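Let us work through a complete example step by step.
Step 1: write down the sequence.
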Amino acid sequence: MRNIQAAIIDLYDGYPNQAISSFQHILNTYAANNGLTVNSRVFDLRGKNEVPDTGFDIYISSGGPGSPIESEGSEWEQNYWNLLGAIDTHNQSDAPNKKHVLLVCHSFQLICRQYKLADVNRRTSESYGIMPTAQTEAGKADLVLQGLADNYYVFDSREWQVVNPDMKRFEEIGATLLTIERERTDPNNPRALMAIRFGPYCFATQYHPEVDPADMKARMLTDEYKKHMVDEYGIAKYEEIFADLADPAKIGLTYQTIIPNFLAQALKNQDIPS
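Step 2: predict the structure and record it as tokens.
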């Protein structure tokens, strides 16, 4: 039985969240369904400056609260770039068993800022809920997105955005834009970038593919979580999200597709030892 080593990089800085446990659950479920074992370890990089080494097969870097700009030059962020640089060096070498990286939300914003791919700025209002997104022609051909509709649904939760892509810069670093935001209500507002591939081994999403609709629906039924959502977003938004969670063609399909497809590509033809 093959044994997978996975590093989960926690960028929540101690902020309460379900994402880290969801990543672990997805890894364990995928392993169980495919005759594998998985050893996952969580690294609190932003809060405790815990940094994984390059001995892992898979790296998943989470979302997180706050500005993706203010941390520029910080110790933890420098360690983050050192790690991603070391992974890239490994992947560009003749070494076997390339290391695959998944970047989510805050991590997506950080790397777009770091590589100067687009403008990273604060939205006029928070985007929160289950939203349709549109695949580019490149997205329609990407293996991680196979099985999703051209306009597929995602769980979006962000106060920041990545907009106005510099396509020349994309070409220079070998990045590919895969998905963009739905049409904005105000046509003067640019559509945000929602998924990007950074070469063959790194896939990044602005949205949260780890959100399990069944788990979220159960949490929304608790009095505490319902009160939080209604106080924050209003009863109409609460009811809209609750109804969308019941539709298997929305984020249920996204949850079952993106990270499992990413893992399948990461492990394809790798000689991971037992």
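Step 3: interpret the result. The chain has ten helices and nine strands.
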